[in-house]
Amino acid sequence: MTLEQAFVVADKASHDLKTFDCGKTGMNDFLSRFAIKHNKLGLSRTWVLPEVVSKANTETAPTDSKKTIAAYFTLSTATVSREAIPAQHSLPTYPIPVIMLARLAIDSKYQGQGLGAKTLVTALRQARTLSQSGLPAYGLILDVLDEQALGFYNSFEVFQPFTDEPMRLFVGMKTLSDL
Asked: Which residues pair with 169 in a beta bridge?
């Protein structure tokens, strides 16, 4: 199995979203049941990294088969109170717009091979691109699923915990501009 080089927006016509399995039921269910619906409603956008069917396997694979997903991430918009953001700047009193990294998951077949880091960097760059294209966002936030995920995100040394929620992380858009 090889992977495509780029993440693309999830599409149920060409991507097999139902067989993805990262070992976390909620993450699997989101991709298979809600990602496309949320895309259509404008609630979030999910990008996937499909597997490429090798030429050797094309004889046995149906021509209309959907591509299996190796990894995905979901971005949405959110607002947070200025008091919660670990920022040194003076911010307005109204809620601060941010981009939320709502989901990031790697299929079990690809875990432990560096794909998590690639997926995270791609998600952060996509957030930066959205902000530079006009989407107002002071930074990016994410809610950490568990201690293992917290260790993963902290290994990048760019995230700061929220002042009142250590399992919610923040990175400023200025930092993302340097990626």
From this structure: 142, 161
pLDDT at 54 over 80: no
Q: Which letter does DSSP use for residue 53 in this model?
A: P
Q: How many CB atoms lie within 10 A of CB 55?
A: 7
Kindly report each contact of residues 111-116 with a partner whose C-beta sits within 8 Å and lies 24 or more positions away, as own/partner. Answer: 111/22, 111/23, 115/3, 115/49, 115/70, 115/71, 116/71, 116/152
What tens digit of pLDDT does each residue of 155-173 get? 999 999 987 888 999 999 9
Residue length of the chain: 179
Residue that the structure tokens 């490429």 belong to: 52
Give the tokens for residue 70: 């190796």
